[in-house]
Amino acid sequence: AQSVTQLGSHVSVSEGALVLLRCNYSSSVPPYLFWYVQYPNQGLQLLLKYTTGATLVKGINGFEAEFKKSETSFHLTKPSAHMSDAAEYFCAVNTNAGGTSYGKLTFGQGTILTVHP
Amino acid sequence: DSGVTQTPKHLITATGQRVTLRCSPRSGDLSVYWYQQSLDQGLQFLIQYYNGEERAKGNILERFSAQQFPDLHSELNLSSLELGDSALYFCASSASRDTQYFGPGTRLTVL
User: Fold this and answer.
1) Which end of chain B is more exposed for a tag (fewer CB within 10 A), N or C?
2) Least CB-CB distance to B97: which of A44, A90, A96?
């Protein structure tokens, strides 16, 4: 069974500083990996995804993540934090092999990002 | 806006009651998923339907059931409600394994 671990339930950075949110997964098959963001009282918005191909993926709002198979990691980064980045971030994995089942998402516990002025 | 709609946005009810949550997927998406988000359990997959058929089940209680109708909308039925069922319930839809698009959620409060 797949699982996702997000290191750090809370991360605090200053505006303009680097954002690094860590995600490690376990999977017996090649995973599809996702980062979602949840703003207060809202649903989940897809930030970026890795399916196949290039291991460095870019998403919305200046975020990017790198799939490292050897480390089973998919850390999320942003060079310079904005106040508007304050939210909860979820890493997720889908290990379904395909077909019309498409597979379910298994989520990490989430990381709350706080950005200080 | 993801294109996935959920109603109602908020629901307050009493223990022992039954409620129905509704989800309309993005146009053309055949697959619908239900997830529960709670403080103690985090985000957990409940159930998936594809074109009207149940395809996968997660940690869904026997008191909970779902269905997907011919027009592809889905309903999640929660019965004999307990305090611990209070949570945010999300619906998501997809057209492939690549991406699931989430609705805004229904916040259920059981008093």
Assistant:
1) N
2) A96
Nearest CA in chain B to A91: B43
User: What is the rounded distance in angstroms from the CA atom of residue B55 to the CA atom of residue B111?
Assistant: 32
- Write out the H or E segment, with its range, that includes residue A90: strand A87-94
Write the Ramachandran bin of B92: left for phi over 0, alpha for psi from -120 to 50, otherwise beta.
beta
The tokens describing B56, both together, are 């996968």
Any B CB within 8 A of A34 CB: yes
pLDDT band at A115 (very low <50, low <70, confident <90, very high): very high
| Residue pLDDT, tens place only, A10-45 | 999 999 999 999 999 998 777 899 999 999 888 999
Residue of chain A nearest B103, judged by CA positions: A43
pLDDT at site A31: 85
Indicate the SS3 state at residue B84.
helix
Confidence of residue B74 (pLDDT cuts 50, 70, 90): very high
Which range (A51-55, A79-83, A105-109, B42-46) has the least confidence? A51-55
Q: How far is Cα A25 from Cα A109, in angstroms, rounded to an integer?
A: 12
Suggest the residue from A2, A33, A44 to mutate for an interface test with chain B (most B CBs closer than 10 A): A44
Cα separation, B2 vs B28, whole angstroms: 13
A43 touches chain B (CB under 8 A): yes
Contacts of B44 in chain A (CB under 8 A): 107
